[in-house]
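Q: For a teaching handout, I want to show students what a protein-ligand complex looks like in token form. Below are the inputs, and the small molecule is iron/sulfur cluster. Please produce the holo structure.
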Amino acid sequence: MSVEQFKLRMRRYNPESGDAPYWDEHTVELEPHRSVLEGILQARDRFDGSIGIRCSCRQAICGSCGVRINGEPALACHTHLEAAVRGAREGAIEIEPMGNMPVIKDLIVDMDAVHWTKVRRVTPWLINKQPVPEREYLVDHDSMVDVTQTMACIQCGACVSDCLAMEVDPGFIGPAALAKAYRFVGDPRDDRQFERLNDLAQDPQGIFDCTHCFRCVEACPKDVDPMGQIMRLRRIATSDYQIVDRNNGRRHEAAFTTLVRDYGLNHEAELLPRSYGGNSWFGKFAPAAGKELLSSLPVIVKGLLRGKFNPKTAIFGHKLRKQDLDAVRAIYEKVEGRERRYELNLYVTGSDEDAEAPDAKSETGTPSEPGATNEQVPIASGGAEESAGA
Ligand code: SF4
Ligand code: SF4
Ligand code: FES
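A: Here is the structure, written as tokens, with iron/sulfur cluster included.
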């Protein structure tokens, strides 16, 4: 393949210099299938030895080279120049440091200040069940497959970079650390499942701080699905352990699900009272609901003035046709009527499992005892064989 020219526009910044950040452009010459990282390294070798970039493996394994390419989080070593140039504005591939973390120099961010501090927050090691067996713990296969998805994390920080909740609340524990928390909550050898969940549920910046924006799911180069792991932590905390958190997260979720069951769609005016006072007539007068309503008034008025919602529907709820409402309720009956909860674990289970009959799948040993089971659905790409770190 012949060499082509690619224009790289890099964000440069040295906090120690006292100068403002600026854009720096260099044209590199490489085959199109080479990576953006190789382009940066060539620019550094040929034009400016002071360009700051962190990298190691160059194979999407070590997680060092996380940056933003054309505004999207990515591993520089795992992004081809030909792909990056397709999304480039004015023909220049824009490369910036990751977001939500302070810049140390140019494209290097301080992972320790944010990412690793949050990972340490979730006690990222196994706390053994006692007594410790004389030889090894025996763990059933499905339980380990279940946590393999989170073990695939390479700690690149791409999800942290794009987490919208962290942008608003930098104290939020965040997607990577919470995915790591599931890795131990889901491990049947761990002795602190309840304590871990209770801690993360009660923390105002814990599992209920996530806003389900899906950015971490899109950002992750290893299909770890951090948001999915956070939702699983919530389900185990609320459904299995019935943890009532001081953030009102459990009641708020229950309010949503019961409102959709009752009205077929969310009922805005009922959401607050039901979140604070439960599903009863007296609940409407819960003092905390009134307080929250007052603090939300400016947002409500703004939404009303901008025509974001219909006041009549917001106050009286949606009126669905009876057959539509019945169809919604039938879904609830089906799901709630199940003896066990099914979790979708969209991860590679390996060729042995692919060959297995459906009956041979998990009967026991889900990480989320009591009550839950998981279902592994093989997918074609990604894979445990690429994973690093535990
Ligand atoms: S889904 Fe939650 S954790 Fe993931 S980026 Fe959005 S707010 Fe952050
Ligand atoms: S969850 Fe994905 S995006 Fe986040 S640090 Fe791990 S590998 Fe990177
Ligand atoms: S250099 Fe290791 S992941 Fe890119």
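A: Two things your students might notice: The beta strands are 4-12, 22-30, 66-69, 72-75, 92-96, 103-105, 108-109, 341-345, 372-376. The longest helix spans residues 287-305.
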